[in-house]
Design brief:
423 residues, alpha/beta, nine-stranded mixed β-sheet, seven-stranded mixed β-sheet, globular, transferase, methyltransferase activity, Thump-like
Length: 423
Amino acid sequence: MARVAVPDDTPNPAPAPAPAPSSQGRAAADPEVDAFLALLTPTGQRLLTELRDYDPADELAVATRLRRDHPAGLVSAALGQARLRQRAAAKFGQDAERMYFTPDGVEQSTRRVVADHRAARVVALGVRRLADLCCGIGGDTLALARAGVRVLAVDRSPLTCAVLRANAEALGLADRVEVRCAEVDEVPVVPGEFDAVFVDPARRGGRGRVFDPEAYSPPLSWAVELAARMPNAALKIAPGVPHEAVPKDAEAEWISVNGEVKEAVLWFGADVTPGAVRATLLPAGDTITGGGHPAPPAGPVLRYLYEPDGAVVRSHLVAELAEQLGARLVDPTIAYLTADELRPTPFARAYQITDALPFNLKRLKALLREREVGTLTVKKRGSPVEPEELRRRVRPKGPNSATVFLTRVEGAPTMLLGRPADG
């Protein structure tokens, strides 16, 4: 689900007129689709406008009032859409007020900052026509269209396709987006007709998240075979995918947003360095690359501790970061770095360490009491102790703050006490 960047100073256009209800892409009536299309009628649009700023805590009273003048089914659909728009604001910003969603679409769609980043890279490759397979409600499709790419968006869900059509219309992008409701393996995607393909396979099943790439829908191997036939390709995968599952002719990129890892993408094409690995930090766009760098040595904790961004850890680029920082590992199996010199970096958070002690709950409690620490941030890597349990047992109290790291140093359970190096 890809998106494309829009300059921050671009004014939001007025909401587009609602498209007329259509059965395009449907062989037979679908109650879910019909309920959604009712929201695109003038009456449905008025209801959505009225509910734009409603408080979900007042939903019962609001629903009772609206049902006096409107069918109960339409009111229910409008309230549901209003709730989804409020949830989607975290991913789509102000566009969420004009867009349409499904519950799965809100949860699984690419957030705009990630889609904008990906779309910019696609455009830099010279792509003008792209097939977005498993497009969902259109996070990536809309971003690509905003960037000037013409997109064939394919999804097997009639409701999802109807929602994407409405989104393209509402955002003024319908002339660049063709939506096709079909199984992705039934749609011919060939070089010449398309410059690139983007595949975002379903990674959830009846029992929740799917971790085996061959259990994706469609399987990763199917998407890789398709990518091999195209001039350019990008395949979205789970960020926890084993590195052994990454094809050797792909570049793997892990992406985090404000320090939280969101996704991984496999890139294929002439401009890709096979086997390369990349970590990208958004919204700033900082990138670190590498692959195959020897692991740094491990040793005792020095004055500063660096906590690498999750994208750096998932991409196995801790060694490259250690070289930039002149740092070493605190333990061969733990992704914490330590150094005597503080070097600014966007790829890790730095802490000044005041105490490095063998793990001992009583000693920690006494130390916190002595320093009047009432605000305690607990971080852990390689420790079985849960942060909330530790806070409950030490009962911090006082005006000061501190950070404690529960980890291993040279194989031994250790607690490190410190504070952020930036204040």
